[in-house]
From TrEMBL:
Keyword field: DNA-binding
The protein's name: XRE family transcriptional regulator
Occurrences of domain HTH cro/C1-type (ranges): 29-83
Family annotation (InterPro entries): Cro/C1-type_HTH, Cupin_2, Lambda_DNA-bd_dom_sf, RmlC-like_jellyroll, RmlC_Cupin_sf, TransReg_Diox_bact_type
Coiled-coil annotated residue ranges, if any: none
Domain of life: Bacteria
Length: 230
Protein backbone atom coordinates (compact mmCIF):
# COMPACT_ATOMS: atom_id res chain seq x y z
CA UNK A 1 0.00 0.00 0.00
CA UNK A 2 1.32 3.47 -0.94
CA UNK A 3 1.75 6.13 1.66
CA UNK A 4 0.08 9.51 1.10
CA UNK A 5 3.42 11.24 0.53
CA UNK A 6 4.30 8.63 -2.14
CA UNK A 7 1.19 9.61 -4.06
CA UNK A 8 2.12 13.28 -3.79
CA UNK A 9 5.58 12.57 -5.17
CA UNK A 10 4.15 10.57 -8.09
CA UNK A 11 1.70 13.31 -8.99
CA UNK A 12 4.52 15.82 -9.23
CA UNK A 13 6.78 13.60 -11.32
CA UNK A 14 4.81 13.94 -14.57
CA UNK A 15 4.81 17.76 -14.64
CA UNK A 16 8.51 17.79 -13.83
CA UNK A 17 9.25 15.35 -16.65
CA UNK A 18 7.16 17.35 -19.08
CA UNK A 19 8.93 20.55 -18.06
CA UNK A 20 12.29 18.89 -18.62
CA UNK A 21 11.25 17.68 -22.07
CA UNK A 22 10.03 21.17 -22.97
CA UNK A 23 13.31 22.66 -21.76
CA UNK A 24 15.40 20.19 -23.78
CA UNK A 25 13.24 20.75 -26.86
CA UNK A 26 13.61 24.51 -26.58
CA UNK A 27 17.36 24.34 -26.10
CA UNK A 28 17.78 22.02 -29.07
CA UNK A 29 15.63 24.14 -31.39
CA UNK A 30 17.61 27.25 -30.46
CA UNK A 31 20.96 25.48 -30.86
CA UNK A 32 20.12 24.19 -34.34
CA UNK A 33 18.52 27.47 -35.38
CA UNK A 34 21.52 29.56 -34.40
CA UNK A 35 23.87 27.03 -36.01
CA UNK A 36 21.93 27.49 -39.23
CA UNK A 37 22.14 31.29 -38.73
CA UNK A 38 18.39 31.67 -38.90
CA UNK A 39 16.49 34.36 -37.02
CA UNK A 40 13.27 33.50 -35.24
CA UNK A 41 11.37 35.30 -37.98
CA UNK A 42 13.17 33.38 -40.75
CA UNK A 43 12.48 30.03 -39.10
CA UNK A 44 8.89 31.11 -38.60
CA UNK A 45 8.55 31.89 -42.30
CA UNK A 46 9.97 28.47 -43.18
CA UNK A 47 7.62 26.61 -40.84
CA UNK A 48 4.43 28.66 -41.04
CA UNK A 49 4.75 29.75 -37.41
CA UNK A 50 5.63 33.06 -35.77
CA UNK A 51 8.73 34.47 -34.10
CA UNK A 52 6.70 34.91 -30.90
CA UNK A 53 5.66 31.25 -30.86
CA UNK A 54 9.20 30.05 -31.54
CA UNK A 55 10.58 32.30 -28.80
CA UNK A 56 8.16 30.73 -26.33
CA UNK A 57 9.11 27.27 -27.57
CA UNK A 58 12.85 27.90 -27.22
CA UNK A 59 12.37 29.14 -23.65
CA UNK A 60 10.45 25.99 -22.75
CA UNK A 61 7.27 27.97 -22.10
CA UNK A 62 5.17 26.22 -24.72
CA UNK A 63 5.03 22.97 -26.63
CA UNK A 64 4.28 22.10 -30.23
CA UNK A 65 2.22 19.45 -31.98
CA UNK A 66 3.79 16.73 -34.08
CA UNK A 67 3.08 18.46 -37.37
CA UNK A 68 4.79 21.65 -36.22
CA UNK A 69 7.79 19.75 -34.86
CA UNK A 70 8.16 17.92 -38.17
CA UNK A 71 8.13 21.25 -40.00
CA UNK A 72 10.74 22.73 -37.66
CA UNK A 73 12.96 19.65 -37.94
CA UNK A 74 12.77 19.66 -41.73
CA UNK A 75 13.60 23.36 -41.91
CA UNK A 76 16.63 22.75 -39.68
CA UNK A 77 17.83 19.71 -41.64
CA UNK A 78 17.35 17.24 -38.79
CA UNK A 79 14.93 14.56 -37.64
CA UNK A 80 12.32 15.13 -34.93
CA UNK A 81 14.25 12.72 -32.67
CA UNK A 82 17.25 15.08 -32.81
CA UNK A 83 15.16 17.71 -31.03
CA UNK A 84 14.91 15.52 -27.93
CA UNK A 85 18.36 13.91 -27.97
CA UNK A 86 20.38 15.04 -24.94
CA UNK A 87 23.51 13.23 -26.10
CA UNK A 88 26.16 14.71 -28.33
CA UNK A 89 27.53 12.90 -31.37
CA UNK A 90 31.10 11.67 -31.04
CA UNK A 91 33.32 14.50 -32.32
CA UNK A 92 35.71 12.21 -34.19
CA UNK A 93 34.50 9.33 -36.33
CA UNK A 94 36.09 7.93 -39.45
CA UNK A 95 33.55 7.31 -42.22
CA UNK A 96 34.87 5.00 -44.91
CA UNK A 97 34.04 5.56 -48.56
CA UNK A 98 31.68 2.56 -48.54
CA UNK A 99 29.80 3.97 -45.51
CA UNK A 100 28.93 7.30 -47.11
CA UNK A 101 25.15 7.75 -47.48
CA UNK A 102 24.47 7.98 -51.22
CA UNK A 103 21.78 8.93 -53.69
CA UNK A 104 20.90 6.49 -56.47
CA UNK A 105 22.94 7.30 -59.57
CA UNK A 106 21.07 9.66 -61.88
CA UNK A 107 22.16 11.17 -65.18
CA UNK A 108 25.64 9.71 -64.76
CA UNK A 109 26.12 11.52 -61.42
CA UNK A 110 26.87 9.53 -58.26
CA UNK A 111 26.48 11.68 -55.14
CA UNK A 112 27.34 10.93 -51.52
CA UNK A 113 26.93 12.84 -48.26
CA UNK A 114 30.16 13.50 -46.34
CA UNK A 115 28.72 15.61 -43.51
CA UNK A 116 27.39 13.81 -40.48
CA UNK A 117 23.82 14.43 -39.42
CA UNK A 118 22.43 16.49 -37.89
CA UNK A 119 23.91 19.24 -40.05
CA UNK A 120 25.04 22.37 -38.25
CA UNK A 121 27.36 24.93 -39.82
CA UNK A 122 27.89 23.34 -43.23
CA UNK A 123 27.10 20.40 -45.49
CA UNK A 124 29.60 18.63 -47.72
CA UNK A 125 28.93 16.29 -50.64
CA UNK A 126 31.15 14.23 -52.91
CA UNK A 127 30.18 13.67 -56.52
CA UNK A 128 31.44 11.31 -59.21
CA UNK A 129 30.45 11.94 -62.83
CA UNK A 130 30.57 9.38 -65.61
CA UNK A 131 31.80 10.66 -68.97
CA UNK A 132 28.97 12.90 -70.20
CA UNK A 133 27.26 12.72 -66.80
CA UNK A 134 25.53 15.79 -65.35
CA UNK A 135 23.48 17.09 -62.45
CA UNK A 136 20.42 17.16 -64.71
CA UNK A 137 18.96 18.70 -67.83
CA UNK A 138 18.11 22.01 -66.17
CA UNK A 139 20.03 24.30 -63.80
CA UNK A 140 18.70 24.30 -60.23
CA UNK A 141 18.86 26.36 -57.04
CA UNK A 142 18.62 25.57 -53.33
CA UNK A 143 18.38 28.17 -50.58
CA UNK A 144 20.61 31.24 -50.51
CA UNK A 145 23.87 29.97 -49.01
CA UNK A 146 27.56 30.22 -49.80
CA UNK A 147 28.62 27.27 -51.98
CA UNK A 148 32.08 26.12 -53.04
CA UNK A 149 32.61 23.69 -55.92
CA UNK A 150 35.98 21.90 -56.04
CA UNK A 151 37.17 19.58 -58.82
CA UNK A 152 39.36 16.72 -57.62
CA UNK A 153 39.82 15.06 -61.01
CA UNK A 154 38.44 15.35 -64.52
CA UNK A 155 37.23 18.24 -66.63
CA UNK A 156 33.79 19.76 -66.11
CA UNK A 157 31.64 22.62 -67.29
CA UNK A 158 29.79 24.55 -64.60
CA UNK A 159 26.98 26.83 -65.69
CA UNK A 160 26.11 29.69 -63.33
CA UNK A 161 23.18 31.74 -64.51
CA UNK A 162 24.16 33.00 -67.96
CA UNK A 163 27.87 32.19 -67.54
CA UNK A 164 29.80 28.96 -68.13
CA UNK A 165 33.14 27.94 -66.64
CA UNK A 166 35.53 25.08 -67.47
CA UNK A 167 37.15 23.58 -64.37
CA UNK A 168 39.89 20.96 -64.16
CA UNK A 169 41.55 19.08 -61.32
CA UNK A 170 42.47 21.48 -58.53
CA UNK A 171 40.16 24.27 -59.71
CA UNK A 172 37.42 25.66 -57.48
CA UNK A 173 34.74 28.33 -57.68
CA UNK A 174 32.37 29.95 -55.18
CA UNK A 175 28.83 31.23 -55.72
CA UNK A 176 25.45 31.64 -54.10
CA UNK A 177 23.30 28.51 -54.05
CA UNK A 178 20.41 30.72 -55.19
CA UNK A 179 22.14 31.13 -58.58
CA UNK A 180 20.83 28.56 -61.09
CA UNK A 181 23.65 26.08 -61.65
CA UNK A 182 24.37 22.91 -63.57
CA UNK A 183 27.43 20.66 -63.90
CA UNK A 184 28.42 18.46 -66.87
CA UNK A 185 31.46 16.20 -67.28
CA UNK A 186 32.86 17.29 -70.66
CA UNK A 187 36.11 15.32 -70.31
CA UNK A 188 36.94 11.87 -71.65
CA UNK A 189 37.47 10.34 -68.18
CA UNK A 190 35.29 10.08 -65.04
CA UNK A 191 35.35 13.17 -62.81
CA UNK A 192 35.20 13.67 -59.06
CA UNK A 193 34.10 16.81 -57.23
CA UNK A 194 33.20 18.18 -53.81
CA UNK A 195 30.40 20.61 -52.89
CA UNK A 196 30.68 22.62 -49.65
CA UNK A 197 27.63 24.64 -48.57
CA UNK A 198 27.31 26.98 -45.59
CA UNK A 199 24.92 27.31 -43.92
CA UNK A 200 23.21 24.04 -44.93
CA UNK A 201 20.25 24.20 -47.29
CA UNK A 202 19.07 20.58 -47.08
CA UNK A 203 16.09 19.71 -44.92
CA UNK A 204 15.53 16.37 -43.23
CA UNK A 205 13.42 15.16 -46.17
CA UNK A 206 16.34 15.84 -48.53
CA UNK A 207 18.85 14.08 -46.31
CA UNK A 208 16.58 11.07 -45.79
CA UNK A 209 17.05 10.27 -49.48
CA UNK A 210 20.71 9.44 -48.82
CA UNK A 211 21.19 5.81 -47.77
CA UNK A 212 24.18 3.52 -47.32
CA UNK A 213 25.35 2.12 -50.66
CA UNK A 214 24.54 -1.45 -49.58
CA UNK A 215 20.90 -0.40 -49.16
CA UNK A 216 20.86 1.05 -52.67
CA UNK A 217 22.27 -2.16 -54.10
CA UNK A 218 19.58 -4.23 -52.41
CA UNK A 219 16.76 -2.35 -54.12
CA UNK A 220 15.66 -0.02 -51.32
CA UNK A 221 12.59 2.15 -52.05
CA UNK A 222 14.81 5.20 -51.64
CA UNK A 223 16.25 4.48 -55.08
CA UNK A 224 13.40 6.34 -56.71
CA UNK A 225 14.27 9.65 -55.01
CA UNK A 226 16.68 12.32 -56.09
CA UNK A 227 17.87 15.37 -54.15
CA UNK A 228 18.27 18.79 -55.72
CA UNK A 229 21.11 19.94 -53.44
CA UNK A 230 24.71 20.54 -54.36
Amino acid sequence: MKRADDHTADSGAAPNLEARRSSILGQRVKAFRTARRLTLRELGDLTGTTASFLSQLERGLSGANTSTLMGIANALGINVADLFDEGEALPHKVVSRSERPALPASGGCHKTLLSRRPLRDLEVYSGEFDVGGSTGDQPYTHGNSHEMFLVLRGRLQLTLGQESFILEAGDSIEYSSSTPHKTVNIGDTPAEVVWIISPPTSGAADLDQYVIRNSLASGSPEQTSESSEG
